Structures are given as structure tokens and as C-alpha cells.
Amino acid sequence: MPNVKTAIVTGSTSGIGLAIAEALAADGCNIVVNSFSDTPQDHAIAKQIAEKHKIETAYIKADMSKPDECRALIAKSAERFGSVDILVNNAGIQHVAPVEEFPIGKWDAIIAINLSSAFHTIAAAIPLMKANGGGRIVNIASAHGLVTSPFKSAYVAAKHGILGLTKTVALEVARDRITCNAVCPGYVLTPLVEAQIPDQMKTHKMDRETVIREIMLAKQPTKEFVTVEQVAAATLYLCSPAAAQINGTHISIDGGWTAE
Q1: What Å distances lie between residue 259 and 73, 146, 191, 255, CA to CA?
Q2: Which residues are part of the catalytic machinery?
Q3: Is residue 124 included in any domain, yes or no?
Q4: How does DSSP classify residue 260?
Q5: In angstroms, rounded to a whole number, what is the distance separating the alpha carbons of residues 154 and 169?
Q6: Does residue 86 surpass a pLDDT of 60?
Q7: Beta bridge pairs of residue 32
Q8: Domain of 234?
Q9: Both 238 and 135 in a single domain?
Q10: What's the burial of 254, exposed, middle or buried (CB within 10 Å: 0-12/13-18/19+)?
Q11: Are 181 and 137 in contact (CB under 8 A)?
Q12: How confident is the model at residue 2, as a pLDDT?
């Protein structure tokens, strides 16, 4: 592989994806920043990462619900940087509803963005990684890839599927110096989660600390959020030479949730 690696991180303009992009950039990778929105802020984020870490970045728009755009993201990244060495599938959405009331459109979108997009990006990236002599694929799954919760049927199905996809890909490319692994975070304090706290406080008539401990982190034994930096650090490790023999498995970062 080239000395300077190229890393694609889907859904990387905020939250976990942005933290992973920052960590890989700090490690010396050139970064492809991605979202579906293509705003001036999106491009500014890519520019800021480049300036901060003295590497090269590109912002590439791709709607991860659309197979052609998923595959085009990989092709455009290779055209821009000449290689694709690291692929982190992070893009995802969520919706909560009982199965019998779950909107069909929401089901289709969650499966497309949280699961099928990874299939398409991986399928497009593998030939490039083989040509380069190796690569790293990391899929950001969830504790919900291992256990379930009510009212999250599409999300749970997609994340369980991601773990199955991870294992299958790992076996297929094991002799090509490519690894495929997953990271399974519990509840992570992202801007989207932070924004939910005031509403939860009002609904449950609780203070902030009680809402976090008893409502949002009820299943997380440490009663602490996972940080985006912790998820990024695990991802960075899986992309490192030290993780060359870690393949087809997952790292749980959930405070002990899935130990029960």
C-alpha cells in the first residue's frame, strides 16, 4: 500500500464519523469526507481537517440510500487520490415505532443506508484494495447488532445484518491482506443525542443527570455515554498494522451492556 493511505468515512460531517475522520487524519491518512447534503459547511469541514492535520481531504457528496452513488463514492475517491486503503462505513439513520406501525418508507431507508450502503461500498472498494496489496474495512455497527430493543426493528435488523456482512467479507478477502471488522458502540453522546436530553427531562420530569442515568443509559452498566473519541480510537486500531490478524469480528464499546 502507498505510504500515505486514503481513508473514506461515510457520514463524516458530524458525530462518530467526524471523530473517525479526525483520528485517521491525525494518523496521517488523506481523508474523503462524505454526506448527502453538499453544503458549504460540509466542504469547510473537509478543509478544516486538511489544514489541522496537514493532509489532503476531499468532500464527496453521496446519498447512501442510492446504490449507484455509494459505488460512485468509491470510484471518485480512487480517482482523486489514486487509491482506497481504508473504508469506514458509518452512515446511518434511526426511527422508533412498533412493528405494526413502522412506516414502510422508514424501513426501506434504514435498511438501505445502514446496511445496503456498506455492501455497495465494500463491493466497489475490494478490487481497489486487492490491487493495492491490502486494505482495511471497518463497519460501525452497534450494540443493537448483538442484542435488541423494542420498537427499533429496522435498525436492529440492519445492524445484525452488518455483522453478518462483516464476517462474510472477512472470510472472502482474508488472503488478500484485507481485513473487515466492526465496532459496536452503545449509546454515544453525539449532537443528535444531546439534543434529545431537554425533551426527555421535560417528559419524565427529571433532571439532566437522572435522565441520562435512568432513561438513556438504563442498559449501559457504567451509566456513562461512550464518547465519539473512544469509537474513533477503536476504529483507528483496527486500521493499524497491529490489527493485521484481527478479522471478521467486532469490538464492543458499550460499558458492559452486551455482557448481560
Answers
A1: 37, 10, 27, 9
A2: 155
A3: yes
A4: -
A5: 22
A6: yes
A7: 8, 58
A8: 6-187+227-259
A9: yes
A10: buried
A11: yes
A12: 46
